[in-house]
Amino acid sequence: MENNNVEILLIEDNKNDAELAIRAFRKANLNNHLIHLKNGVEALEFLFGTGKFDVRDISKKPKVILLDLKMPKLNGLEVLAQIKANEQTKAIPVVVLTSSKEHPDIKRAYALGANSYIVKPVEFDDFSKVVTDLGFYWLLKNQPHV
Amino acid sequence: MDNKEKTIELIIANKKLAFQNQEKEKRAHELVSANKELAFQKKEKDKRAAELLLANKELAYQNEQKDKRAAELVLANEELAYQNEQKDKRAAELILANEELAYQKELKKKRASELSNSNKEVDDLEKRVKERTEDLESFSYSVSHDLRTPLRAINGYAKMLEEDYGTVLDAEGLRFLGEVRSNANKMGVLIDDLLTFSRLGRKGITKSTVDMNMLLETVLSALNQSMTHNAEIKFSNLLLAVADYNLLQHVLTNLLLNAIKYSSKKEKPMIEIKSEQKNGEIIYSISDNGVGFDMQYGNKLFGVFQRLHDDEEFSGNGVGLAIVKRIIDKHDGNVWAVGKEGQGATFYFSLPDNDK
Question: Among A34, A76, B10, B261, which one is most buried in terms of CB atoms within 10 A?
Fold first, then answer.
């Protein structure tokens, strides 16, 4: 898939969760413009056109970023802070996906400008539904900033 | 003797006589004077005698007074002696009291140092509790995150297997797969319940006035959406509660789910919710005509992981009522249950009546 035509940017270090999410998007026919990046460093390189994404046209922005919080190196909150602190990227909706509603960082995520905070359900059908719903909402219902 | 001589003699004699007369008169005069003096002196003597008499009387009186005084002095001396004795006694008592005071002062000092020691212990304990709570919170988060992630994978891949390869599995294979998924789900619910239970220990409550009739309607419509049951559920004119809305919803959902579950094997399951005001409390009750329980084990109902039925008979993880108890405890209320095997159960919870 071409890096300049991305609608969903999935930032997720757990390959199982990523596979389940991608499957759910595929079942809803929402996976055509999805890119999965495995950590925060890659994600920022993609968004700011640096590192291995230095040829990418960064004016082409994803319609939604799905961001896992617990990641090695640069964690989700750090990635979120950088996205929301940058004029180029701060209007992109960021949906924080996490395994736990116990997360002490829910407040921090919202304070940093997260647009939504979603707990990944254990039950696969529920998980599929959540992923599909948020795909439909941000890709089809939501009117983007630009 | 011639006349002349005679005359002279006479004259002389006269003169002598005259002198003697004069002397005599003088003497008479002096006598009168002496008499007068005597009379005066006698008068004086009488006066003195009278004065002496008076003085004697005075002396006698003064003697009498002196005796009286002496008697009084004796008394006063006795009194003084008594008071001296008392004073000595008091002094001895004072010495004792001083000793006691000194002892108590020392004791106070000891107590103060003990108190400051135990205050320090309390501070240390509080610090440790805080640290432990923080540990527990991060542990909860880890449990929640780290256990849910592989569970989601188990569940998800089992489902994918079923979706993509269901056709190449026989009925028994599909059943195994179903068991994998349903157990993964059970574990998910258990983790969520345990986390709810531990979160309730830390979170404060926000009280408001809750219309229990409306809350029950809400709970019932949510229950009816998520499950099918044939229980007849009755309630009317329930008293208002002052409680945390969300937590109370949790309590009612839990108790109703239990009532539905444990009466589900009856032909006509009946559930009734009532309320009454009693001794400054409002007591709510949820009764069912289900399997009931043996009161002998009633105290185990509200403990974590405690169950009175096996999973085959009625599924459950033994956390639900522990959560209910923790919520009601937080509201300074009580939970209890009354039941008999095969004859239904009634679960009660009380909340402080804020009108009282």
Answer: A76
